[in-house]
Design a protein that fits this description.
Elements lengths: L2 E10 L9 E7 L33 E3 L2 H11 L9 E5 L9 H9 L3 E6 L11 E4 L11 E9 L13 E9 L14 H12 L4 E2 L3 H4 L4
Parallel strand pairs: 2-4, 4-5, 5-6, 6-7, 7-8, 8-9
Antiparallel strand pairs: 1-2, 1-3
Helix pairs in contact: 1-2
Bound molecules: S-adenosylmethionine, the ligand Nc1nc2[nH]cc(C(=O)O)c2c(=O)[nH]1, iron/sulfur cluster (SF4) and magnesium ion.
S-adenosylmethionine binds next to strand 5 and strand 7.
Family: Belongs to the radical SAM superfamily. 7-carboxy-7-deazaguanine synthase family.
Organism: Saccharospirillum salsuginis
Keywords: 4Fe-4S, Iron, Iron-sulfur, Lyase, Magnesium, Metal-binding, Queuosine biosynthesis, S-adenosyl-L-methionine
Length: 218
């Protein structure tokens, strides 16, 4: 099978329980909840996406014919011999549409831990090391367990209570950020205030913010 990758880059994980961790990001092209075209945004199941995942034309992107080819490109992004456990975050687009057990096995053999950011509508390979589940709008979530639940907040069709039965080590609210070029400091946003108030009233939830946008890294 061919893997379509929009872009690949080495940066710090900006969100959730692994925030601050050096990570290779592998962004797959395509999503089942939005076409990625602005003219379809308003009618999409997921209408607030902050990411361009259309095509394979980004830095480090392309079509990879085999799991071995894609694994090699990921391994080449990591500073081998400099310490730490190599870590890759599969994202997108929706990585559940393309991710395979074979790709993860290949990366495990090279010493990598493998994480995913998913909207939870697709079955995932069982050999992942870290699953971040981020439900979207009215879409049906089929995953019943994850390492972290990271819910963009507020979402009228996806209130936190809807996910009380999901088995998760951590539950995060991530304040909804504007998409496009605009970056507003979290402290100035109503979504941040609302998320803080929800966490204080429901202490099984924690706040996470998109730290990479605050410090202006990829
Ligand atoms: C672009 S998505 C790709 C992975 C997967 N499709 C998903 O939705 O989880 C990566 C992460 O960015 C988050 N995200 C996307 N748009 C956002 C926004 N406008 N504000 C805050 N987080 C956002 C998603 O919730 C998800 O956790
Ligand atoms: N630094 C950084 N951290 C991230 N965590 C999740 C991201 C994503 O787009 O999946 C992301 C991203 O795009 N950049
Ligand atoms: S599910 Fe993820 S990739 Fe798809 S449109 Fe929503 S945030 Fe973007
Ligand atoms: Mg992002």
């Amino acid at each position: 099978m061919t893997y379509s990758v929009k872009e690949m880059f080495y940066t710090l994980q900006g969100e959730g329980a692994q925030a601050g961790r050096p990570s290779v990001f592998c962004r797959f092209a395509g999503c089942n909840l939005w076409s990625g075209r602005e003219e379809d945004r308003a009618s999409a199941v997921c209408s607030f996406c902050d990411t361009d995942f259309v095509g394979t034309d980004g830095p480090g992107g392309g079509k990879f014919k085999t799991a071995a080819d894609l694994a090699s490109a990921i391994i080449a992004q990591w500073p081998m011999g400099a310490g730490g456990t190599p870590y890759v975050v599969f994202t997108g687009g929706e990585p559940g549409l393309q991710l395979t057990e074979e790709l993860i096995d290949t990366l495990h053999r090279a010493g990598f831990e493998c994480a995913v950011e998913t909207n939870g509508t697709q079955q995932l390979p069982s050999n992942l090391d870290w699953v971040c589940l981020s439900p979207k709008g009215a879409s049906e979530v089929i995953l019943t367990r994850c390492d972290e639940l990271k819910l963009v907040f507020p979402q009228p069709e996806a209130p936190p209570e809807r996910f009380n039965t999901v088995n998760a080590r951590y539950r995060f609210l991530s304040p909804l950020n504007p998409w496009g070029e605009e970056v507003i400091l979290p402290a100035r946003q109503d979504s941040t205030r609302a998320a803080i108030e929800y966490c204080l009233a429901h202490p099984d939830w924690r706040l996470t913010i998109q730290m990479h946008k605050v410090v202006n890294i990829a």
